[in-house]
Write a structure and sequence with these properties.
This protein has helices spanning 8-18, 23-33, 36-53, 58-65, 69-81, 85-95. It has 96 residues and is mostly helical. Helix 3 crosses helix 5.
């Protein structure tokens, strides 16, 4: 875990997210919390990570998601050298 990230406000945010129970609650909470561009940016990064995990090439990812190659590179770095957060989510989604 990134020690720069760990602070009371961030923990409170994560605790709040963990309390959400339905898709509708998620939509309501994140619509209140984030701007539309912020939500789109986060969802785009998650989609990029999924495509990279599926070994898609950059050109396909750019055309499907509209993400810049810089964004794809940053996500790719997180997949390979990050905290395995993407991996945890992808494995749990596959089990469903």
């Amino acid at each position: 875990m990134n020690s720069k990230l760990k602070e009371l406000n961030v923990e409170f945010l994560f605790q709040a997210i963990l309390k959400l129970e339905t898709m509708e609650e998620c939509y309501s909470f994140f619509e209140d919390l984030c701007t539309v561009p912020e939500l789109r940016a986060m969802s785009q990064r998650l989609q990029v990570a999924k495509m990279l995990d599926e070994h898609k090439v950059y050109s396909d990812i750019v055309s499907e998601t509209g993400a810049s190659t810089a964004t794809i590179s940053r996500v790719n770095r997180s997949l390979h050298y990050g905290c395995d957060g993407y991996r945890v989510v992808f494995e749990r989604l596959e089990k469903e």
